């Protein structure tokens, strides 16, 4: 196994969730520069919910997409800078602006059953000359057959890579293997895998994906990311090197960046607490994490109860308003119970 | 897969490393009681280095083995209480005392190539009527053939179970599979697996071990343990349930115990920092973690450099004195370099 694996680090995009999108442009530039010097292939940046994510709905980021892209593209010499685009949140206009500012990769993300809505975004991204990645989120909610169906759409629109995205950290290695193997069989483009660590298997799942032929994998320094966080880049790279894969990364520099540049900027350690674990177990969206905590406090209910109920209702990204509904309903149910 | 897996929780033994062995007997009793009510099969307690570990060499624990055993055995109703015995640290006398105080399981641990020294301890443990577990530590240092050879010795002495113990957190899932599969093939007793999370795969490795037929696995609440810690019990059980295994554990109670009883007592979050990662990558003993940090501070050298050098020298448990030697040599080498 001497295959070169393409590493995307998402400390500065998925990791933004854990600092409420408050990295400053100069902090981003410092971290991006360290990642660049560590040999990471792709550095994803911006608001946790992608281009134009800065809003009342998703929380305002410290700076604008433009400010972040300018700061980062100015210091990154070797890596490609990526942006995330969730159709419905970001627009084609945002994508054009990002490309003009120096983004070289667009990751166009939809719910696992909604690839249709990515058509114009993927096509535009290709026209802009960007490396274009299709991101099928909440991949645990559908089996291999349906995922293949959706991934084929993205391939037909021109995507260069398609990712199995375990947004809720709800997959186990066998589930990852089945999905990646099916895509490898059915598609002619490289397959990627994006892990979350809610069930403690972010790195284990990443190894499983690689064993089935995935060649693009994601991580973040110190594991920073929504919910229980991502595969921890420096740990993942160590594991990959030990398993015989080539990443092109300098492990010592990654370790240094994680410990001395990123860790001091974290507002909390990236652990698997009860809410994050239930997210993985209940299979709901990792970015619901903080929303559920806040709603639980507001309505005086158990955040775990909210998340388990959301899982039952198969709530997906974009339906964050239901978090409040569920919290309110649970608080009512509790009051009725108390009265009775 | 409806097989019953035997869960051993080591929060109160391996986890003792992370609080410098300072849990009080009443804290131990509180945590043990919560574990007992959660349905865990075996609760391992005591100094991190086992019976009689409390010493200048390994650090003094808050209380004695006797005080811990009395406090815990008094409150545990369903689970079996286990002690760890490292021949050379603990003695037969300690084992007899533990059995009299209510321990029902002895885990007799040796370096992976040193099963010979466990003969009288395993035989005595059996005579005392204890469930007797052979623990082959630093299992990454030898391949399946040699591990089978050593495990067969433990089986011949009367061990009821033999564990593949990844003390340094240096194995990846494939390495775990190969070792567990070889033992399953060669032995007539159940096989166990004890993970450390230095490469981020404690839960992933545990699932790999189970897939190859291991039926005993270990964890600790919040992952508390030497180095990067163990498989996080509540996360591991969630993953096992999701994978279709029966553990007999109540996941909600485990989550509650982790978050509300254990987490407030932790002196640091159990994360994979640079030293822990290098431990897994360099393949040296997880309990070297704090020793190396202290030696590094004392001699003004890089803790990573100490650990990588220890890995090269294949230093094992009991050779902790070499940590100081290496730190001292590195400090000399640096001075010479500075002078030149």
Automatic annotation (TrEMBL), chains A, B:
The keyword Metal-binding applies. It comes from the Bacteria. InterPro entries: 2-IPM_HCS-like, 4OH_2_O-val_aldolase, Aldolase_TIM, DmpG_comm, DRE_TIM_HOA, PYR_CT. Residues 5-255 form the Pyruvate carboxyltransferase domain. It catalyses: (S)-4-hydroxy-2-oxopentanoate = acetaldehyde + pyruvate; (S)-4-hydroxy-2-oxohexanoate = propanal + pyruvate. The keyword Manganese applies. Its EC number is 4.1.3.39. GO terms for molecular function: 2-isopropylmalate synthase activity; 4-hydroxy-2-oxovalerate aldolase activity; manganese ion binding. PROSITE patterns: PYR_CT. Substrate binds at residues 13-14, 167, 194, 285. Mn(2+) binds at residues 14, 194, 196. The active site is at 17 (proton acceptor). Keywords: Aromatic hydrocarbons catabolism, Lyase, Manganese, Metal-binding. Belongs to the 4-hydroxy-2-oxovalerate aldolase family. This is 4-hydroxy-2-oxovalerate aldolase. It comes from Collibacillus ludicampi. The lineage of its organism: Bacteria, Bacillati, Bacillota, Bacilli, Bacillales.
């Amino acid at each position: 196994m001497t295959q070169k694996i393409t590493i995307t680090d998402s400390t500065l995009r998925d990791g933004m969730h854990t600092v409420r999108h408050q990295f400053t442009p100069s902090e981003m530039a410092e971290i991006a520069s360290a990642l660049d010097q560590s040999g990471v292939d792709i550095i994803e940046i911006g608001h946790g919910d992608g281009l134009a994510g800065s809003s009342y709905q998703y929380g305002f980021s410290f700076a604008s997409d433009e400010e972040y892209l300018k700061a980062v593209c100015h210091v990154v010499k070797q890596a490609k800078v990526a942006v995330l685009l969730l159709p419905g949140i970001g627009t084609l206009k945002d994508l054009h602006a990002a490309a003009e500012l120096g983004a070289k990769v667009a990751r166009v993300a939809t719910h696992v059953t909604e690839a249709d809505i990515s058509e114009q975004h993927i096509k535009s991204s290709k026209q802009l000359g960007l490396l274009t990645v299709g991101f099928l989120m909440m991949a645990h909610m559908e089996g291999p057959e349906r995922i293949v169906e959706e991934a084929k759409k993205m391939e037909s629109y021109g995507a260069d890579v398609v990712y199995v995205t375990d947004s809720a950290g709800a997959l186990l290695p066998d589930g990852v293997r089945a999905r990646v193997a099916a895509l490898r069989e059915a598609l002619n483009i490289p397959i990627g895998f994006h892990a979350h660590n809610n069930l403690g298997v972010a790195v284990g799942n990443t190894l499983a994906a690689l064993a089935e032929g995935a060649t693009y994998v994601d991580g973040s320094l110190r594991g920073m990311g929504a919910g229980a966080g991502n595969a921890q880049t420096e740990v993942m790279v160590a594991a990959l090197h030990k398993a015989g894969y080539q990443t092109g990364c300098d492990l010592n520099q990654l370790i240094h960046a994680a410990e001395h540049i990123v860790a001091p900027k974290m507002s909390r350690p990236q652990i698997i607490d009860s809410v994050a674990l239930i997210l993985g177990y209940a299979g709901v969206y990792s970015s619901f994490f903080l929303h559920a905590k806040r709603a639980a406090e507001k309505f005086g209910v158990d955040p775990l109860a909210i998340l388990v109920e959301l899982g039952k209702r198969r709530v997906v990204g974009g339906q964050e308003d239901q978090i409040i509904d569920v919290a309110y309903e649970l608080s009512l149910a509790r009051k009725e119970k108390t009265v009775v």
